[in-house]
Amino acid sequence: MFAVARNPLSIYQRVGVETGVQTADPHKLVLMLYEGALLALSDAQLHMTRRETAAKGRALSKAIMIIEGGLKASLDVKAGGELGERLAALYDYMCDRLLHANLHNRPEIIEEVRQLLMELRGAWEQIDPAAIPASSPSVSQPYSTTVSSRTTSVTA
After folding, report:
1. pLDDT, tens digit, for every residue of 63-103?
2. Which partner for 59 in 44, 78, 118, 145 could form a disulfide, CB atoms 3.0-4.6 Å apart?
3. Angle (nearest 5°) at CA 98 between 97 and 99
4. Considering only CA atoms, which of 59, 54, 51, 50 is closest in space to residue 113?
5. CATH architecture for residues 24-126
6. Which of 45, 63, 137 lies closest to 72 in space, CA to CA?
7. Is 13 exposed, middle or buried (0-12, 13-18, 19+ CB in 10 A)?
8. 93 burial level (CB within 10 Å; 0-12, 13-18, 19+)
9. CA 132 and chain centroid, separation
10. Residues 6+ apart with CB under 8 A from 2
11. Quick one: 79 exposed, middle or buried, by C-beta within 10 A (0-12, 13-18, 19+)?
12. Nearest to 63 by CA among 42, 40, 33, 94
């Protein structure tokens, strides 16, 4: 009649993430994408050292999916101009490097991408969320903000 939870911690974490996504503003959603990608890369590094090939592949695939389908897909390259184009190219580079790391079991490449993501996350954390219009009903709407004294338009 009632299903027994096999892993209560994972259910709790999943609900926490889903709730966080539903209540987060666009700025917070991008930070959550960075955190998810970094966590997947940490998992991939662990699985690589343990020679757990399938788990390593799943973790790297998850990181690539977050970078490509989350971070890059949320960019408004047209509105962001040169900065948006460069960021899109950097995301492509990261995905290519992660594929190479997976094929050749190269943990140093995963670390390279992890460092790049940490720098981008740090820059994103410096953005004032108040610069994001309160009327933004969805993540896919572009907004302008100032990063390192340069104004750019991005989609969170």
Report:
1. 999 999 999 998 988 888 999 999 999 999 999 999 999 99
2. 44
3. 90
4. 59
5. Up-down Bundle (1.20)
6. 63
7. exposed
8. middle
9. 19
10. none
11. middle
12. 40
| pLDDT at residue 46 greater than cutoff 70 | yes
Where does residue 104 fall: left (phi above 0), alpha (psi -120 to 50 degrees), or beta otherwise? alpha
Decide if 86 contacts 127 (C-beta within 8 A): no
Q: pTM of the entire structure?
A: 0.72
Tokens found for residue 98: 């992660």
* Count of Cβ atoms closer than 10 Å to residue 119 Cβ: 10
Q: CA 10, CA 28: separation in Å to the nearest integer?
A: 22
